[in-house]
Amino acid sequence: MIPFLYQCTTCGKLYQRDEVRYLCPDCAKHYRPGIPLVGVLLAQFDYVAIRRRLKKGNPDWSLFSAVEEQHYPPYPFGHTPFFPVAALGKALGFENVWLKNDGLNPSASLKDRASFLVVAEANRLKEPSIVTASTGNAASALAAVCAAAGKQAIIFVPESAPRAKLVQMLLYGARVIPVRGTYDDAFRLSLEYTARKGGLNRNTAYHPLTIEGKKTVGLEIYQQNGFKVPDVILVPVGDGVIISAVFKAFCDLKAAGLINRLPRLVCVQAERSAAIHHYIRSGKYQDAKRPDTIADSISVSVPSNAHLARKAVLESRGFSLTVSDQEILRGQKTLADKTGVFAEPAAAATVAALKKLRRSELLGRKEQIVLLITGHGLKDVEAAMKSIRIPRSIEPTIDAL
Amino acid sequence: MIPFLYQCTTCGKLYQRDEVRYLCPDCAKHYRPGIPLVGVLLAQFDYVAIRRRLKKGNPDWSLFSAVEEQHYPPYPFGHTPFFPVAALGKALGFENVWLKNDGLNPSASLKDRASFLVVAEANRLKEPSIVTASTGNAASALAAVCAAAGKQAIIFVPESAPRAKLVQMLLYGARVIPVRGTYDDAFRLSLEYTARKGGLNRNTAYHPLTIEGKKTVGLEIYQQNGFKVPDVILVPVGDGVIISAVFKAFCDLKAAGLINRLPRLVCVQAERSAAIHHYIRSGKYQDAKRPDTIADSISVSVPSNAHLARKAVLESRGFSLTVSDQEILRGQKTLADKTGVFAEPAAAATVAALKKLRRSELLGRKEQIVLLITGHGLKDVEAAMKSIRIPRSIEPTIDAL
């Protein structure tokens, strides 16, 4: 493995790997539950060493990993399909649209990537239990990876989480604590829990390896795209960690000399859970009051990684937009109709966004546009039911047709 | 592509590719809905030509494909994880247990493989619509691939199919006809439908390319296993097509000179849907009267491919067994607990079977045993709910814990 240091994204200070665990200690003094995280750490590798060891055409991605392979749990993830969807592109007025279908991870969302790396870190640290708050996907991913690794997952989840996600985590053997409150309440409770009772806290962005784990989706897109940088990537955004992680992937590739430009990152939020969108637009942060969207995975009042998400969009020369629940549901149906991919509402928000951008000058018709599909539609069948009607049954005779 | 002929599995007669479409015309005279299919066709390739063109270490699987690549729909499938599960093996008393997790196909079941190839064939034949009967998985797979290919799927499904599967196929834009009856009623109706109204009939085994499509799972297992033949593969069996297809894969590899032995194939059926099991045991075929199992994907009264499934088990020197619904549900929980894989009940039947075989002499403790996971658990959350209890919600304070 290539050595790395943690760097604070707020003050820039560097730390040895085992000197810190979650946030930058200096900046964490200014953090309290209820505001976006400050002092989020990013792993900074010895990129000169990486460059020296890289092979062209068949790069060894473990060079970009912040945990040694010997600690990896037996949980194959990633390597999900990346492919062009001409019919969808045509329907939306673009010529070169691609999907990265990360709903085909084992627990059916991109979150397997983060959970995998944090559980690997727990193996390294010999921590038997891992704690998280989640709207559902991160929790079911953590529960799944913990099951494979023989560890205990302890999960705080808003009681409104879709039932399929609850069933998943319970079946995997996690200890699940449904909370009468929002994701933000669950987030706060999980921090209090590890402070009092110990265990490794996997909260997204709070544990720096969640960003490192999720960045593998960016590395895969680059590889599967024939080692080329796509022009634009549309990312559904809740707490802002996935978009920051995609940004980190391409920053790592650039620092290692593999690429010389970044893809433009487009932040897609639900209209009624749009704190990061407004922060990007105005430069002033404000919580999303009473977030409410059918896209439960991106329903967040206080996005933990707001600062880094904003930076990812601005530094990649991207932009941000919002979509309504109606648009999301229509996007889900269009995606299924045109590609055979059944995505959960949060992921379908990218399709809704692309529809909205049809006549905008923000995207070129011929640009290579990637939609990041972050979760499988089977995670939330209730939502999909709003777009369809189950037909009446018939008697089993051809004449009944 | 390598040329192939269709061979009738009942009378042995050979046909040119475009001479026949479904069953052997001679034998089909003896077929009527309500009995297992007779005259099922198998594609027989020019194996000498394949052998000549094969490269060691990196075989070109398209040599074994019965449809030209130019007709393939834009629907990436397969390449699902194959990996050892030491903790599960240990819990069940075996040392070398592996999973092939085909629930991670795009529509969340192995059936994508068959639908892919039949839709490719429809492209070749310029057929705009494809008809099938299904307990749910084949239908949602067909609907998904048809969406990607711009074709119309017409689906007959028992009204008791799990809702998630119905929602899937409707969202993909299929025409769905729920039937007040069993899978067998739906099968018969779909045959009458294509006879009267046309369209390509994708019924499993009835269309010979369903077996060819599904065989890709066997080819992948061989490749992912480092080009070695596993000792044993446990396959959940409903109508008997998947087990026949796994058999066909290894027969093709043997005919092409890549391997010199077959894996032993173990037929796993639900106690109350066990027509093939009894047929294998007794040599006498009898329908499963009123099939009833929580494993809806393998709930079949008249298994269409009974004859070939029996042959696959006997010629591979395998065997057959049944498991109860209780055992299936416990198997599903054990699998999730020990591996992080959430499988649908039919797939979990293989875990239940392995549990039962712990003290049997039919399997060696050290043999390499593969469990074929045919579908994702998210397809049927209701079933999984029987194994877990959703905990009570708490107020969002640490003291409420």
General description of the model:
The structure is a homodimer of 401-residue chains. The first copy, chain A, is of the alpha/beta class. The first copy, chain A, has a domain at 82-107 and 210-385: Rossmann fold. The first copy, chain A, has 15 helices and 13 strands. A six-stranded mixed β-sheet of chain A has the order 4-5-13-10-11-12, with helices on both faces. Chain A has a four-stranded parallel β-sheet with strand order 8-7-6-9, with helices on both faces. A three-stranded antiparallel β-sheet of chain A has the order 2-1-3. In chain A, helix 5 links the parallel strand 6 and strand 7. Chain A is globular, with a radius of gyration of 20 Å. Chain A starts with a strand and ends in a 16-residue tail after the last helix. Chains A and B meet through helix 5, helix 6, strand 8, helix 7 and helix 13 of A and helix 5, helix 6, strand 8, helix 7 and helix 13 of B.
List keywords for this structure.
37% helix; homodimer; 401 residues; 4-stranded parallel β-sheet; globular; alpha/beta
What name does CATH use for the topology of the domain at 82-107 and 210-385 in chain A? Rossmann fold
Q: Work out the radius of gyration of chain A.
A: 20 Å
What is the CATH class of the domain at 82-107 and 210-385 in chain A? Alpha Beta
Q: Give the quaternary arrangement of the chains.
A: homodimer
Run of helices and strands of chain A: EEHEHEHEHEHEHEHEHHEHEHHEHHEH
Please state the average pLDDT score of chain A: 95
End-to-end distance of chain A: 64 Å
- The shape of chain A is globular
Please state the structural category of chain A. Answer: alpha/beta
- Number of helices, counting only DSSP H or I runs of 4 residues or more of chain A: 15
Q: How much of the sequence of chain A is in beta strands?
A: 15-25%
Strand order of the largest sheet of chain A: 4-5-13-10-11-12
